[in-house]
Write a structure and sequence with these properties.
Number of helices: 0
Oligomer: single chain
Shape: globular
Bound molecules: copper (II) ion
Radius of gyration: 12 Å
Pfam family, one: Copper-bind
Protein name: Blue (type 1) copper domain-containing protein
Largest sheet: 4 strands, antiparallel
Keywords: Copper, Metal-binding
Distance between the termini: 17 Å
Mean pLDDT: 98
Strand order of the largest sheet: 4-3-7-8
Strand content: 35-45%
Helix content: under 10%
Structural class: mainly beta
Length: about 70
């Protein structure tokens, strides 16, 4: 996936976890400081379901569902 950080001078990343407790990491993208674009490559979980993603730098504000169908 392509990850674009448009925030000048602010670091972000994309990380996937099994659930919102964020205790078990599935993928942890490298943190990039904007403005920058990077490409993350990872294998999604084989089991369909709703997983959790967040920015590890802003774990309270930047979160969402990562859905495997
Ligand atoms: Cu962030």
């Amino acid at each position: 996936m392509n990850f674009t950080n448009k925030d000048n001078g602010i670091p972000h990343n994309f990380a996937v976890y099994t659930d919102s407790s964020a205790s078990q990491n599935i993928f942890k993208g490298e943190i990039v400081t904007g403005p920058a674009t990077t490409t993350y490559t990872f294998t999604a979980p084989a089991t369909p379901g709703t997983y959790f993603f967040r920015c590890d730098v802003h774990p309270q504000q930047m979160t969402g569902d990562f859905v495997v169908q």
